[in-house]
Amino acid sequence: MKKLKWFLLVGLIPIILPFLLIIILAVATAGSPTGGSGVEGATYAEHWSSGDPYTHNLLVHRYGITATQLDGFLDTLGISYDKNRINGKKLLEWEAKSNLDVRGIVAIALNESSLGTAGVATNTGANMFGYGAFDSNPENANNFNDEVAVVALTQQTIIGNKNETFKIQDDKAQKYANGSLNQTVDGGVYFTDTTGSGKRRAETMRKLDQYIDEHGGTPKAPIQLTGKTRDGGGVTSNDIPVGYSLTKAIDTNGYITSTYPWGECTWYVFNRGKQVGVNFDPFMGNGGQWMNKPGFITTHTPTEHSALSFSPGQAGANPIYGHIAFVEQVKSDGSILISECNVKGLGVISYRTFDGQTAKQFTYVLGN
């Protein structure tokens, strides 16, 4: 009987194999890679989002930093800190919960309180990040422990008050001091010190990053998967629809025009992609042609930081050339936020949202 079952199973292989291949291909397609580096809500850069730690976006991470590397760096600082309170394992947990670059977390803790060994950070219940320690009432920090503080300062001080880089923090402190800060436009200050707190923190980040390089380095970040969603966090402004946000503010300074004419939708998406670490070919064609460009994966799954290629006439696109836009956010309900150019005028950047059902009808081009 056992031999009979074996022969029957062998005979079924030619029938079963095609179905197995279909399943494997379906799974592979669902996880098709895109350009840039973002996994489970995090965005990665090899070292810095902008080329240096001072202008680095603190919501962008270096992938694969280990607890051992962090512990080793802390031990080089010559501070008698509480290793139960701050250590590599906890730092990585705080990074995961707050979405703040762990190198930035170390820099803030070191420069605010010498890793919890100085100032109000030594009070019972207080935090080492200076969160809640107002100039007029520093003891208020006692109401926020370390974990609560790092999450809150990310959401409120870094994101809510538009302090995504240490340079921005220094610049706003100077503006606050001379009375030129427009908090409605610029957001509130992180700190009021004008002696270069941001530069010192950036220097700590640089030293930590160098230590990591010298002690094993880090692996290359895995490529972003389709289907990732993001409901909270990010950068907002008055012209972005309420409830949506960008992972990085749009800045057209430095956008190139070598292959795409200035102000066109293609010019914008090509450059916006580069701004967040996603690369498209310099010769993708008109907006409606991007979906057919050889060498690029397309999907109908809404994907953050992909290019949305509208067919001619689709959703108001040009009836001849189509249109291209950039997907800034995909929410858990399936709705999307796109940024685009030349819908309201040449060079004018604007936003639209689409509900989840509509979003599934579009074609998304995944960058390299």
From TrEMBL:
Residues 213-234 are annotated as: Disordered. Residues 240-366 form the Peptidase C51 domain. It holds the Pfam family CHAP. SUPFAM superfamilies: Cysteine proteinases. InterPro entries: CHAP_dom, Papain-like_cys_pep_sf. It comes from the Bacteria. This is CHAP domain-containing protein.
